[in-house]
Automatic annotation (TrEMBL), chains A, B:
InterPro entries: Bact_exopeptidase_dim_dom, Peptidase_M20, Peptidase_M20_dimer, Peptidase_M20A. It holds the Pfam family M20_dimer. Residues 1-25 form the signal peptide. The lineage of its organism: Bacteria, Pseudomonadati, Pseudomonadota, Alphaproteobacteria, Sphingomonadales. It comes from the Bacteria. Keywords: Hydrolase, Metal-binding, Signal. This is M20/M25/M40 family metallo-hydrolase. Residues 214-309 form the Peptidase M20 dimerisation domain. Coiled coil: none annotated. SUPFAM superfamilies: Bacterial exopeptidase dimerisation domain, Zn-dependent exopeptidases.
């Protein structure tokens, strides 16, 4: 045991040392490579277990807002892996604290429970060669199974970390979940104000390091009007025209390409009959940017476009039966944020990814890390494993070729060990 | 019997004579009034029967495209009223020929079988004072029940008309039915080319004389595009933007107010998720005018607006994943037309309506008469009865206060007798 701890401690120094070199330019040291090799050897021994966990987790459905069955399973699996302080919080997140040798802020290691697949979607894992197929197998069963492997690594080797680690399986990462789990964790839960850094495992490529949070603001904009007979009431204001002018106004907005800032008029519905002027049109709009100020500026421009369109319609046509009114309802809010590329957490992940043989690259995305990044708490979302595809479709798959898969698994573990500073217990 | 026939023949001369006077300015002659009084006396004797027929017809549902149960009932009721040549044509119309004393073009007297109410709508006639309540009671059960009363009048009095009368209960007058019944009658049925004039009974006010057919052209316009992720694919063409520009283009079209010409962007739908650029947006558009050339011009402008919008969108944004394409599908086609205000049929109806004590007025609408009017065949849609309301709603009602109701019933009969030139059989 002493030997392993020494090796880990030495490797930590290697990884930490690498961080001092010009960012991302250095070649990996032989010591870091040796460290990765030792981690991989252990994780290789867990390969069959990880695959079995993947299947078990995946086949326990976790539709949006209905993650409780999978939460209960993961809580039990965390206990089975050796943790004895496992709870489920008020929002539905599974929390498992592994104490450190020192007091202080906790390091959160997380993956999300929910999938995008609605209740009733058939979910059965199938294998074809080196691929496992099933909805959600990579997004994010892999993150959950990886976390369990790492817990077993720490427990089986009785590794002590300086910093406490809070393992979290979150609810509501996808779509309408709107990051409700991680939001609760940081703003209402028992660990509010006590989280020092955050790591989310949420894609299938251990080379992808998401250090920038694409923020989004999503609106349902409803245009209400009097409505009427298409012939008899011709000439009165039409919410359809106000909606159209709004879309046109949005698509005339100029947005920066760096930081990438985007909008989409994505969904629309309204009207009851072809021969009636509608009394209501609903429009959904998505706006994104990794830069909060750009996102706020865009949002302001979009809402102004809607207001201008409504005022224009009320001025252009007859309002004797009523005016067009506007209700803009925020239906999605993912704050933007960033962990600087030169932050130790980013550099550690980058180095570990390279050491494991991955073509490391920094990226941006919208993940659970949006919340801590927006709060200025160092956070990162990285991949585990060695690729997959067709995410969010029922043809989703995961590559499980043993060597690369295990190499992918090792990256997150290396980051955890570096971040929490392994010390003998 | 001879006396009645004489009275009718005399009254016809009165009505015909009134037509020579400056249109709509003359006061009713005492002879015409006496004629109306005699008709009312007979119809008053049928009052209880008409109310019973109304209830029976109304409570036999006739949803759009599912009029066969009511058709069978009305066919039997026409037989019971004394006609022996009753058939149902290929489209579902009920046809009952009452031969004239002379050969020649037939005079069609019609009402429509269908209602706007979907299958399963609860239909039970209730009475509150002088009102009968039920979906469809006025539109157009009243027309059908009126027709039956007039057949009984002709049969019971053994009145012979010069011109043959074809009583028709049509299918598909409402909405998506798109006048399919009357269209079949004039363009494909056994009486194609043999109809000299057409009278439709289709509103609850015997003072309303619809001599102008508001034509309509209705389109479902589908904007297709590649679609994609709202953030990842930002910059590609969006069918939503093309739809919006189309609506904007339409609402910039100037249309004449006389003849009244109108448009409405009435229904819209599309998009699958707030975070996706949609791959399809559907827009429904209604256009109307009583002037065929104005309607055609409007249609051309609307379709040009859509084409311009699509071309503009393909020029404005990236088409690497595909372009926006347009499918414009005609989903409604009611031809415009008019029977001139000084046509004998219009003047007869106007005079008869005034003689019965109604405030006669000429109007335009979209009814079964659209088809003959568009073909240049004299046609008219008039009301029967003495008012009602909330048409096309489940709170529809009909005024059945005896005296005014019977007066309303008499108007159509007076028109028929005048048109077909009653002669002893």
């Amino acid at each position: 045991m002493g030997k392993t701890i020494l090796a880990v401690a030495t490797a930590w120094a290697m990884v930490a040392g690498a961080m001092a070199a010009p960012a991302f330019a250095q070649t990996q040291s032989s010591e870091a490579a040796a460290f990765q090799t030792s981690l991989r050897a252990d994780l290789d021994g867990q390969y069959d277990q990880v695959i079995a966990d993947l299947v078990r987790i995946t086949e326990t459905p976790a539709p949006p807002f209905k993650e409780s069955a999978r939460a209960a399973l993961v809580a039990q699996m965390l206990r089975d892996a050796g943790l004895d302080n496992v709870t489920i919080d008020a929002e539905g997140n599974v929390l498992a604290l592994r104490p450190g040798t020192e007091e202080g802020p906790v390091f959160v290691v997380s993956a999300h429970l929910d999938t995008v697949f609605p209740e009733g979607t058939p979910i059965k894992v199938t294998r074809d060669g080196d691929r496992l197929f099933a909805p959600g197998i990579g997004d994010d069963s892999l993150g959950l199974a990886s976390m369990l492997a790492w817990v077993r690594h720490l427990e089986n080797k009785a590794l002590a970390t300086r910093q406490p680690i809070l393992f979290v399986a979150t609810v509501g990462e996808e779509g309408a979940g709107d990051l409700r789990g991680v939001r609760h964790l940081f703003t209402q839960g028992a660990y509010k104000g006590r989280i020092g850094a955050f790591l989310s495992i949420d894609n299938t490529n251990a080379g992808r390091i998401v250090h920038a949070a694409v923020g989004s603001r999503r609106y349902r904009v409803t245009f209400n009007g009097p409505g009427g007979h298409s012939y008899g009431a011709f000439g009165i204001v039409n919410p359809m025209a106000a909606m159209a002018e709004t879309v046109r106004g949005i698509y005339a907005i100029e947005v920066p390409s760096d930081p990438k800032t985007t909008y989409a008029a994505s969904m629309v519905s309204g009207g009851t009959s072809v021969n009636a002027i509608p009394d209501k049109i609903e429009l959904q709009i998505d706006m994104r940017s990794s830069h909060p100020a750009d996102l706020a500026k865009l949002e302001q421009a979009v809402l102004a476009a809607a207001e201008t369109a409504v005022a224009g319609e009320n001025a252009a046509r007859d309002t004797k039966d009523g005016t067009i009114t506007l209700v803009a309802e925020l239906i999605g809010d993912r704050p933007a944020g960033m962990t600087p590329a030169d932050h130790p957490l980013v550099q550690t992940a980058y180095t570990a990814s390279q050491a494991a043989g991955f073509k490391a690259r920094l990226d941006d995305s919208s993940t659970d890390s949006n919340i801590p990044m927006s709060l200025g708490i160092p956070a990162l979302t990285i991949g585990s494993g060695a690729g997959g595809g067709r995410t969010h479709s029922t043809e989703e798959y995961l590559n499980i070729g043993r060597e690369r898969f295990v190499a992918g698994l090792s990256v997150g573990l290396a980051v955890i060990l570096a971040q929490t500073k392994v010390r003998p217990r």
